[in-house]
Design brief:
Layout lengths: L1 H12 L16 E11 L1 H6 L4 H16 L22 E5 L12 E5 L43 E6 L10 E3 L14 E4 L10 H11 L60 H14 L18 E2 L11 E6 L6 E7 L5 E5 L5 E6 L6 E10 L16 E7 L7 E3 L5 E2 L2 E4 L4 E7 L12 E7 L1 E5 L5 E6 L7 E9 L5 E3 L3 E5 L6 E9 L1 E6 L10 E7 L4 E7 L4 E4 L6 E9 L2 E9 L1
Parallel strand pairs: 1-2, 1-3, 1-4, 4-6, 16-23
Antiparallel strand pairs: 5-6, 7-8, 8-11, 9-12, 10-11, 12-13, 14-17, 15-16, 17-20, 18-21, 19-20, 21-22, 21-23, 24-25, 25-28, 26-27, 26-29, 29-30
Helix pairs in contact: 3-4
Length: about 575
């Protein structure tokens, strides 16, 4: 029976004198970033929400169909299995960046006001014609849809509701040669009804992608006999066909290849060898920019890890780490740690690993890192493949260094800070070498003598209200810190000296003529707002007024008439008035 079918097939469809137009086309590998444009109205979102998981599975199964490894392809019609193309070396990945190079999920969504959209092409053989109503085409932002991403960088797939009055349209596609004429239309459109109930329309997407790669319907010229490379579907090894949905049919006086993906039957599953070669020639002629390694636009350039660590991983603790999931990539993990510190468990899902702290003595960082790789058909790293490592730091165990107390509001003098009565100051405990993201989880127990903590108790950042009254007295700041793994460290005592009560400054010489020098006593510190200096006569009239941030200060008093004056000095919360005699 099989030999009879092949003989009929040969006599009715093949002609040996046909010149093979595909023999010179290179057998390149192609890697194509896909962006999904999902456009639905409120009714569609409510009754048929299309999920990220459906689209990710569509990419997986699309790759299987083009690699010849899909489960449907394990059994083929024995009368045609020798014509099966197998691996076409055309692969698809969900785009990881947008046209501007920013990280992206590869799925763009829009809620539209339109109930249906019209197709933008009608003739799938020779021409591309705009729809009767181009303002209703899903491929335009202005029509309620989404604009295409650049055709030389991405394969655009739109999903939307299509106008039912035109007959039920499952999907449609543009041919490669149309790209130059209408680049904004390049891509595939799938009817959202094909995703109903969580379905994944793999073979429909494969059929339409076949069109996008240059294939025509196997029934394009019906039963007309001619050279298969110059008419019909332009492939010599596909039988003539009238096109129907039956899985077994014998129109055109011979058995039909109803399992061919470019047919309309319900059991499609295979490309032929000539279809494989035609796709390669069409891509070489119109879309060579997708040759593997020629352009890496749209390939993963960044990866996010979740969760972001906010606490250390204590001895015996377990932590699961998730990386962004990208279909079609190989995940290569490494965990850099001292011997015996960590046990790494790899999940069946390639973007997930688990780490366990197995060391009761190690306190310190470990590095979890990942790089994404794309491999060619021989298993070698592809030119766009193994890129930079993406890293995340985790801390195991307790603290390894004492905290260091800093104060952004105080100025140190001889390892002391001058703090005045009723003055508020901020203090922070910093932990050298410890991840900043983990510091908020550290418990800090502060000791403050001479002041009161008014905010931040228990954290690494406190605000203190001082109540030091006597000249030369001191306040004490100390902190004891521990993290959740039991590491306890303390800072050395930090002493803070009070402001001078009584005399803060002096004038010399006094009496003076022409100029006088003002200086602060006993290492008094200039406040952040500076020294506010005013000279008034005995009637209260202001003669001079200025601000200084340095001392000693030489005051030019040459404009003052001989007599007595009052010099006031305001230094933060401290105030002093001095008498000045001008000769």
């Amino acid at each position: 029976m099989r030999q009879e079918v092949l003989e009929v097939f040969k006599n009715k469809r093949l002609k040996t004198d046909c010149e093979d137009p595909y023999s010179e086309c290179p057998d390149d590998e192609y890697l194509i970033p896909v962006v999904f444009h999902v456009v639905q109205n409120q009714d569609g979102l409510l009754n048929n929400p299309i999920t990220d998981a459906q689209l990710e599975m569509l990419i997986i199964e699309l790759n299987q169909a083009f690699a010849g490894t899909h489960t449907l392809q394990t059994t083929l019609d024995p009368d045609f299995d020798s014509l099966f193309a197998g691996n076409t070396k055309i692969r698809f990945v969900k785009a990881a960046v947008n046209p501007n190079g920013a990280p992206h999920s590869g799925i763009q969504r829009r809620t539209t006001w339109r109930t249906y959209f019209f197709p933008d092409t009608y003739d799938d053989l020779n021409t591309s014609t705009d729809a009767e109503h181009p303002e209703l085409v899903v491929k335009y932002e202005s029509s309620g849809g989404l604009d295409a991403w650049p055709r030389k960088e991405f394969f655009n797939i739109w999903i939307c509701a299509l106008e039912p009055d035109l007959g039920f349209i499952r999907g449609y596609a543009t041919l490669p040669k149309w790209d130059v004429i209408r680049p904004q239309l390049s891509g595939v459109v799938l009817n959202q009804e094909e995703f109903l109930g969580g379905a994944v329309p793999t073979m429909l997407a494969t059929h339409e992608t076949g069109h996008w790669l240059g294939l025509l319907h196997t029934f394009t010229s019906g039963c007309t006999l001619s050279c298969g490379y110059t008419s019909g579907d332009l492939c010599r090894d596909t039988p003539t066909d009238l096109g129907d949905t039956a899985c077994v049919s014998n129109n055109c006086d011979h058995k039909n290849m109803n399992e061919n993906i470019m047919d309309y039957s319900s059991c499609v599953k295979m490309f032929t060898k000539d279809q494989y070669r035609r796709m390669k020639c069409q891509m070489q002629q119109h879309r060579s920019f997708f040759v593997l390694g020629r352009s890496c636009v749209g390939i993963v350039s960044s990866v996010r890890f979740t969760p972001t660590p906010t606490t250390p991983l204590c001895y015996g603790g377990v932590r699961t780490i998730n990386a962004d999931y990208y279909v079609g990539y190989i995940y290569e993990w490494e965990v850099l740690h001292p011997p015996g510190a960590v046990l790494v468990t790899y999940s069946p899902t390639p973007n997930i690993i688990t780490i366990s702290n197995t060391s009761p003595t190690y306190n310190g960082p470990i590095t979890v890192r990942l790089r994404m790789a794309l491999y060619d058909s021989l298993g070698s790293v592809a030119p766009c493949g193994a890129g930079a490592w993406f890293e995340q730091t985790h801390w195991l165990g307790g603290l390894t260094s004492n905290p260091v107390i800093t104060s952004p509001m105080a100025s140190p003098v001889a390892n002391l800070w001058r703090l005045c009565n009723s003055q508020r100051s901020e203090f922070r405990a910093t932990f050298p070498g410890y991840p900043a993201a983990l510091v908020p989880s550290i418990v800090c127990n502060w000791t403050v003598d001479g002041g009161t903590i008014i905010s931040g108790a228990g954290t690494n950042h406190i605000v203190v209200d001082w109540n030091i009254f006597t000249s030369g007295s001191f306040g004490l700041i100390k902190v004891i810190a521990n993290n959740s793994c039991g590491g306890t460290k303390s800072d050395t005592d930090i002493w803070h000296r009070s402001c001078i009560v009584g005399r803060m400054a002096m004038l010399a010489p006094n009496p003076a003529n022409g100029q006088v020098v003002l200086s602060l006593l006993d290492e008094a510190i200039i406040s952040p707002s500076g020294l506010q200096i005013t000279i008034k006569d005995l009637t209260g009239a202001t003669k001079l007024s200025f601000v200084s941030f340095t001392q000693p200060i030489t005051l030019n008093i040459s404009s003052l008439q001989p007599g007595l004056y009052v010099v006031t000095i305001q230094n933060g919360s401290d105030f002093e008035a001095l008498r000045l005699a001008v000769e």
